[in-house]
């Protein structure tokens, strides 16, 4: 029960942060907001931001599996990384865009998440991004 409450709180904080930062990263091509999204993703998967974002896709999956929370947060992480890849692409940073997309796909595949499915809590944000 305590673990579930903790996860709900972490997800709620993630949604709050990502909702605004992802919109700024995509619509305004704001690098600081993209970095804020990366920090939120790292916190969600319980890793240091610099470490999490530098990991190869398979290594990121392994770290999520080891944390024991991967199943609960995979859909959120995959969605955010996938949309973040779009933001980096719009900023002209194709290398980072490809890395974020590869990370998103690896997470989705490993945890059985649909990379194109928008988590319910982020559907309002996704509607603004269209």
In terms of topology, how is this protein built?
Blueprint lengths: L1 H26 L3 H14 L4 H6 L2 H11 L2 H22 L2 H18 L11 H7 L1
Helix pairs in contact: 1-2, 1-5, 1-7, 2-5, 4-6, 5-6
Description:
The chain has 130 residues and is an all-alpha fold. It is built from seven helices and no strands. Helix 1 (2-27) runs parallel beside helix 7.
List keywords for this structure.
single chain; 130 residues; mainly alpha; 7 helices; 80% helix; globular
* Shape call: globular
| H and E order | HHHHHHH
- Helix content, binned percent: over 70%
| Biggest sheet details | none
The whole-angstrom Rg is 13 Å
Number of helices: 7
- The separation of the N and C termini measures 37 Å
Number of strands: 0
**What is the beta-strand fraction?**
under 5%
- Class by alpha and beta content: mainly alpha
Q: Uncertain regions: pLDDT < 50 for 5+ in a row?
A: none
Q: Kindly state the mean pLDDT as a whole number?
A: 93
């Amino acid at each position: 029960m305590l673990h579930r409450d903790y996860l709900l709180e972490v997800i709620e904080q993630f949604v709050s942060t990502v909702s605004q930062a992802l919109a700024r990263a995509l619509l305004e091509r704001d690098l600081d907001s993209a970095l804020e999204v990366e920090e939120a993703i790292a916190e969600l998967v319980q890793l240091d931001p610099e470490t999490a974002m530098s990991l190869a896709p398979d290594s990121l999956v392994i770290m999520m599996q080891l944390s024991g929370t991967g199943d609960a947060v995979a859909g959120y992480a995959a969605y955010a990384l996938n949309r973040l890849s779009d933001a980096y692409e719009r900023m002209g940073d194709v290398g980072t865009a490809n890395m974020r997309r590869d990370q998103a796909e690896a997470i989705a595949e490993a945890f059985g998440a649909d990379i194109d499915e928008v988590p319910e809590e982020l559907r309002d944000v996704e509607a603004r991004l269209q």
